[in-house]
Design brief:
- This protein has 304 residues and is mainly alpha-helical.
- The protein folds into two domains: 8-166, UbiA prenyltransferase (Tetracycline Repressor, domain 2), CATH 1.10.357; 168-304.
- It is 75% helix and 0% strand.
- The longest helix is centred in the last third of the chain and has 29 residues, at 272-300.
């Protein structure tokens, strides 16, 4: 690692909050909450709140550790240069200690307050993102997002296990949905910020394998997402409400992938298809998991 960026202390609470990547955390919290609400059985509201709080703290801690490790990389990218560490608003050691503290606290509180299986999966997700993805995969392989996608796929499984205390096929499928969604979601972003990654030597797919290969793989993953997103309905874990919603949403995702996949080099430099796919991919995941909860609530009321 190179020399740390200059610092200007003291950091404000907003800088510590920014370390947790709140935009990313909102999706993590939402999918974790949906996993908890969709799980069979019930959980005391206080314990349910505790579980979601721990998921949020764990995600925030992993994000802080990610930014601590990548402070110099972030300083070389336009998209991340304004973050607290590269901007010099925070001491690098404080960011590391903050990340370790809230990560450890999230696991201990989850174990003591909810159950230790959920705590173990939470600990694995933190380690996966902060170490396996950030330190090992990201700087070494263009498959970093494919393999590292597991880190962001754990929250609905954790929420489900917080209620049930065990792992069944349904939470595994929820994990797989996010796992398969991550590459096309992130590669759509990487296509229009690839210069940033190239400048700092990160081997993202568009940088190492080129745009053509990246676009082709976006389409492949979008195709594979269709049966995986509908799988909870196929196995009888949900009703037709989720099934119809999943097919409609995923076919829309697939339709937006086609203009990205077949766009020719030098054509339309504004990258509108890529930006459109990236924006919709976020809406897609929120809507898909919301449909899962709606399906569960309707079934609970006996309306389906």
């Amino acid at each position: 690692m190179t020399q740390a960026v200059p610092t200007q202390l003291p950091a404000e609470w907003r800088d510590f909050f920014a370390l947790t990547k709140p935009r990313v955390m909102s999706l993590v919290i939402f999918t974790g909450l949906c996993g908890l609400l969709a799980a069979p059985g019930s959980i005391h509201p206080v314990l349910g709140f505790t579980a979601i709080l721990c998921i949020a703290l764990g995600a925030g801690g992993a994000a802080a550790l990610n930014q601590w490790w990548e402070a110099d990389i972030d300083a070389g990218m336009k998209r991340t240069a304004a973050r607290p560490l590269p901007a010099g608003r925070m001491n690098r050691t404080d960011a590391r200690d903050f990340g370790i503290f809230i990560s450890a606290a999230s696991v201990v509180i989850m174990g003591l307050g909810v159950n230790w299986l959920a705590a173990a999966i939470l600990a694995l997700s933190i380690f996966y993102y902060a170490v396996i993805y950030t330190i090992w995969l990201k700087p070494r392989t263009p498959q970093n997002i494919v393999i590292g996608g597991g880190a962001g796929a754990f929250p609905p499984m954790i929420g489900w296990v917080a209620v049930t205390g065990d792992i069944t096929l349904m939470p595994v499928l929820l994990f797989l949905i996010i796992f398969m969604w991550t590459p096309p979601h992130f590669w759509a972003l990487a296509l229009f910020v690839k210069t940033d990654y190239a400048n700092v030597g990160i081997p993202m797919m568009p940088v190492v394998k080129g745009e053509r290969s990246t676009r082709r793989q976006i389409l492949i993953y979008a195709v594979l997402l269709v049966p995986i997103a509908a799988a909870p309905w196929f196995i009888g874990g949900t009703s037709y409400v989720y099934g119809v919603a999943s097919l409609a949403l995923t076919f829309a995702f697939l339709a937006l992938s086609f203009p990205v996949a077949f766009r020719q080099a030098g054509e339309n430099d504004t990258m509108k298809p890529e930006k459109r796919l990236f924006a919709f991919s976020i809406v897609y995941l929120f809507a898909l998991f919301a449909a899962l909860v709606v399906d569960r609530m309707l079934a609970y009321q006996g309306w389906i």
